[in-house]
Amino acid sequence: MPSYNNKDFKESNVNYINKDFSSLKQALINYSKSYFPNTYKDFNETSPGMMLIEMGAYVGDVTSFYIDQQYREMLLPLAEERRNIINMAKMLGYKVKPIVPSHVELSFNLELDAVSTDKSKVDYSNGSIFASGIKVQSTANKNLFFETLDIVDFTITGSGITDTNFPVIDNTSDGLTTDYILTRKVRAVSGETKTKTFPITSPQKFRRITLPDTNVIDIISCKDSNNNEWHEVDFLAQDKVPIKKHYTQDILRDGAYTNLNGETYTSDVPVPYSLSYITTTKRFTRETNINNTTSLVFGNGILKNGTTIDNSFLDLEQLGIIVPGQPSDLNQAIDPLLGDEYSTLGETPVQTTLTITYRVGGGIESNASVGEVTQIVGTATVLQDGGSTALTVTNDTPARGGANQEDADEIREKAKAFFSTQNRCVTKEDYEARVMNMSSKFGSIAKVIVSRNAIPYSTDIQEAYNGIVSDSLLNVSDSIHNAFINAQYVFTGVQESETLNMGVDEYKEAILENHINPGLTNLQGSLGANGTIQQSLANFELGTLSELDAQFGTIKINILAYDKNKNLVGNAQAGGTDLPDATDGTPLILNTNLSSYLNNFKLLTDDVAIVDGYIVNFGVIFDVVANQYVNKAEVKLNCIQKIINYFRIEKMQFNQPIIVSQLEYELMGIDGVRSVNYVTVTQGEDYNGGEGFNPPLFKYSVDAETILEDGVDGYGYSYNFEGALNSGIILPVNPQTPAVFELKNPRQNVKGVVR
Question: Is this structure's pTM higher than 0.85?
Answer without folding.
Answer: no
